[in-house]
């Protein structure tokens, strides 16, 4: 074997079918994102956020429902306490009658504030 034999290059291999499919999927995904970003303007995406809060006394449970405005449709929502104090937690949180319902429990020795948010589309 001569030193020239070691320097020979191999012919490039053909891409596997899996690689070709992956490249096509990547191209389609990127093209779809580019199309969506060009076809929807920021003025077309409007959302109204409705929020309310309630004081939850020490060692008690309170619930609050935040409705969407008339003619608006609920997209999502949520809630929680505005502090990270141990003993205050959300018992339940779910959509309710075109609004968002949250029930919170406060086991701390002082009152805490429960905040509920509903994101609505016009």
CATH architecture of the largest domain: Sandwich
Class derived from helix and strand content: alpha+beta
Percent helix among the residues? Answer: 10-25%
**How would you write the strand order of the largest sheet?**
1-6-3
The percentage of residues in β strands lies in: 35-45%
Shape descriptor reads elongated
What is the rounded distance between the termini? 78 Å
| Strand tally | 6
Model description:
- The model has no long low-confidence stretch (mean pLDDT 82).
- This protein is elongated.
- The strands form two sheets. Strands 1-6-3 form a three-stranded antiparallel β-sheet, with no helix packed on it. Strands 2-5-4 form a three-stranded antiparallel β-sheet, with no helix packed on it.
- It has 122 residues and is of the alpha+beta class.
- It has helices at 3-6, 17-39, and strands at residues 48-56, 60-67, 73-81, 88-95, 99-106, 112-121.
- The chain folds into two domains: 15-45; 48-121, Immunoglobulin-like.
